[in-house]
Each structure stands twice: as structure tokens, then as C-alpha cells.
Design goal:
The complex is a heterodimer of chains A (234) and B (292). Chain A contains eleven helices and ten strands. Chain A is of the alpha/beta class and 234 residues long. Classes of the chains: A alpha/beta (234), B mainly alpha (292).
Chain lengths: 234, 292
Amino acid sequence: MLELNNLHVDIGNLKIIQGVSLEVKSGEVVSLMGANGAGKTTLMRAISGLGHITGGKIEFEGEDITHWTSEKIVESGLIQVPEGRQLFSLMTVRENLEIGAHTKRAREKLRDNLEYVYTLFPELKEMSTQAAGNLSGGQQQMVAIGRGIMADPKLLILDEPSIGLSPIMTQKVLKAVIEIHIKGVAVLIAEQNIHDVLKIANHAYVLEQGMIRASGSAKEMAANSDIKAMYLGL
Amino acid sequence: MSIQVLQSLLDGILMGGVYALAALGLSLIFGVLKITNFAHGAMMTVGMYVVYALASGLGFNAYLALPFAMILMFVIGFLIQRFPIHYIEHAPAHNQLLLTLGMAYILENVLLVIFTPNYKTLTVDGFEKALRIGNLTVAPAKLVAFAVVVFVTGCIYFILYRTHTGNSIRASAQNDTGAKLMGINVRNIRAIAFGLGAVCTGIAGGLLTPIMSIYPTLGESFQLKCFVIAVLGGMGNLWGALLSGLLIGVIESLSSYYLGGSWSEMLIYGIFILILFVRPTGLFGRGNRREN
């Protein structure tokens, strides 16, 4: 469904991503692991059209989207819930969700998707008239994920969705990811809680200094002693 | 309160409304583009001359010329953003300042070439005679100006808060990355926001044409006034700009009554500096709470 082939991404003069190839198959959950500064966010932003791609290719559903604009990529169903949530903090929860359904395709399903978001996160319905900026971190993350669902994703990219959240909130967020996955949406996720994420993922990639250091099925990766040592602290 | 105080208050509020509209445009542009438009005053002057040219050259009623000024300024604003400003979006602030200031001088000099530096005045038939309300006198042109400002401000709020495009403008202002990742064409939205800001200048300028003598460099004093008003209101805060506009209008007219015209500017900027000492984000500023 999503295929990166030898992708190179720069920030300024720095070569951040240096030849990354990875694949997310339809209906899969793929985990992208790596320490801070490995380039996960740069890679994910580039997939969504917000990076300076200097080489390689990104294909989504068979189309070459390497140099598409972010709005065209969103329209095609590749949606990102970005690091740091990037909410519209002065707008209400409801407005944030509605802006999620910005594209024509998503607007047609606005009502259904809104209902789905409210069943996934019932709290959001109660807080729908509050300014997003006044919510707690966990609640804001729910809005961010909800906003992503409103865009009607075929593939959802989640960049560190549980960062800074309490353990209870983290579980809630990961549970929502499973729900979304069950509904048939493919997921590419960067997540600090490797232990939890490997339980729900099909495949995993380890990114180190802008290159894929290791990859394999989630089971293999969880059993791999190097990976354990590096990322699980075992 | 003496009748003179009431009279100054009334004049101040009416003129303040026009300042407020122009400053609203500046604040809107800053909110979305994070750029201070130093061509704002010059764009106001262009609005003045568009109305003047249509009225004195083609015999339009000055107020019927306003919609033309509005459309023209939207197009000019849209193009200014699309062509030069788009390319300096990530440039250092001083480069951005030089570019918009440079645009101001270009616009001013185009006006100088076309209209000469001579003062021009425009009278609107049926609007020359001052109205009396009780013991107060009001120039009809100022009343009309205030009414138009209220109407246009209402329209801009409607666009920003009740339309799909308006929601996209506000979303882009609050979080550029978030907006892009939701499929908003932020590049277009920026041009539209600049166009709307330019419409504010066109209308504010056009409304002043029947009120004062105009000349090509008149915009410079409005430039600074708009900037002060927008900063006092908290850059990007539209309600703040409106309230500050009225406030500056009132301070200006009260101080010219009590202290004389030459004091009023000194007082405005003096008060401005004092307020910035106490509240660096402006009277109605939200501070620097902004994502990323």
C-alpha cells in the first residue's frame, strides 16, 4: 500500500534520511522504532509531503506521490497524526474535528466519522465546545487522533502518539489504534513504548542515523536480543 | 462632561473605527503569515486614490466606487502574497521588513507618477453639510464611514467564523503544520488572507478620501498608526485590533482638543511605549502561547 524506495530527505544542508526503504501493506500495523534524533519524524513528515526529498521514491496505492503536495496526499487518504499534536488550540474540539474533514472526500463522510470518533473517545463529545488548547495532554492526543480519523484515512501515520502521557492515557491511545486498525485502516506508528507496540504491530523497522538498521516481523524483533538491548532496556 | 468632550469622543470613535478596520487587516495578515505588512499604509493610499480616480475621473459616487476599490485591493493583495511575499516566508524578519517596506515605496511612487504630489480633495454631493445631533455636529462622511466599517467588519467576521475558507484561514493561523496535514492548501489560504487584509486597507482608505485631503505619501502616518493599534490589540488578535483602534481614535481626538494637534501623535506613541513596558504582548495580547 505504502512503499518507500531508497528515500533521501534533507533538512537544510543536513542529510537526515539516507536511503530508507520500507513497506506498509494494506491492513497492517507497522512500527517504526529508533532513538530520538534517528529521523523518524523527518521521515514521516516527508511521507506526508512536508519534507525536502532529494532522492528515492514514495508510492501510495500504486501511485508515485514523491513530489505531491501535502493537500493532494491527504486527499488520497494518507493521513498523519503529527508529533506534538499540532492542534488548532484556540478552536473548539468540535471545530478541530470538523477541520479534519477538510477534503471533499472526507466531508462527505463527516457525520459518520464524527460519530465514530465520539464512540472511540466519548470524552470528546462532552468537551466538544471547549478550546482544544485548554485540554490535558491526553485529551489533546485524542483530539489529534480524532481529527486524523475525520480525514477518513486509508493509512494513518501516528508520530509518537503517547509521548508525555500517563500510563493509563497511553493504554487508551494504543487501544484506539487497535480499534482503528480493526476497522481496516493501515497504520504506520512511531512509538516509544516498544513493548506495547510490538504486541499490536505486524512488522517493525529500526531507524538509526537515517538508515534502516533492522527490520522484520514484530515477533522476530521482540525476540531479537540486540533490539531488546537497544530499545527495550532488557 | 462638557459638550466639547462629547464632541471629541464622537469624532474619535468615528475615526477610530476606520483605523480599526485598517489595523484589523494588518493583524489578520500577521496572524496568518507571521509577517508585518509595512506596505499597509501605502495600500490604504492606493485605496484612497482608486476611489478618488473613479469619483473625480469617471464621475462615480465615492461610495459606489468602494466595491471597486475592494475588489482591486483583493487582487493586488492576493498577487503581492503570491509573487514576492511567498518567497520570503522563511527569510529572516529584517528581510521581510525590507520587502514589504520596499513595496510601500513602489506603491507610493507609482501614485506620485500618476497623480503628482499635489493634495487632492473630493467632495461627495449631498455630504458636504455637517449634521447636527443635539448640540453635536458630525460630518456625514464620517458617519457613513463608521457605518461601512461596522458592516465590513461584520462581513469579515462572517467569512472567518462561518465559512469553510474562514475556518481554514483560522486553522492555518493557529497551526500551519496541522493545517497542511489536514489537507488545507496553506499557500492559497495565505494569499486569500493577504487579499482580505488588503480589502481592509482599500475600504479604510476609500472611506477617508471624502474626509481628508489626500497625497501619495499620506499612508506613512497610517502605517505606524495601524502597527501601533495592531500591537496594542495583540498581533493576530482581531477583537483586540478593533478595540485598540477605537481607543487610539479617542485618544487622538481628545488630545488634539485639549493639547493641540501636534501633541496628539506624541501622546499616542508615548502611551504605546508605556503600555508595552507593562504588557509587552499588548492590551489584549494572548502572549506567546503558540504551538511549535
